[in-house]
Amino acid sequence: MLRLLRNWYADRWTIRRTPHLWIAVATDPDTDRAPTVMHEDVEKFVRELENPPARVGRRISLLSTSWAAGRLEQVGDGAYWEDTPPMV
Strand 22-26 and strand 36-39: pairing? Predict the structure, then answer.
């Protein structure tokens, strides 16, 4: 089933399976639909792959904002460093 879904939705979703969940991540980071779909039931999962809900929240990562750029140093792919200690 996993292989079939991966082949069928390869142009829109990256799909994986855990022991309890079906998980799909949109291949288009700028989609206006939900970027991630998760369900325990494969039938509900496929219905949402066909018609994903609208996206909620920001379209960009907070790490790409000017605030983060001024405070953080990118040290790798998806890894950032801040030299100041955390506030307590």
Answer: antiparallel
Strand partners, 23: 16, 38
Structure-derived torsion over alpha carbons of residues 31, 33, 34, 35, reported in degrees to the nearest 10: -20
pLDDT in tens, 30-69: 788 888 999 999 999 999 999 998 887 666 555 566 666 6
Global pTM value = 0.64
Give every CB contact of residue 52 below 8 A, 6+ residues apart in sequence.
26, 33, 34, 37
DSSP string, 57-74: S-SS-GGGSHHHHHH-EE
Residues 25 and 6: beta-carbon distance below 8 Å: no
What is d(CA 58, CA 33) in angstroms, rounded to the nearest whole number? 12
Beta bridge partners of 36: 25
Within 1-88, residue ranges assigned H as helices are 2-8, 42-50, 66-71
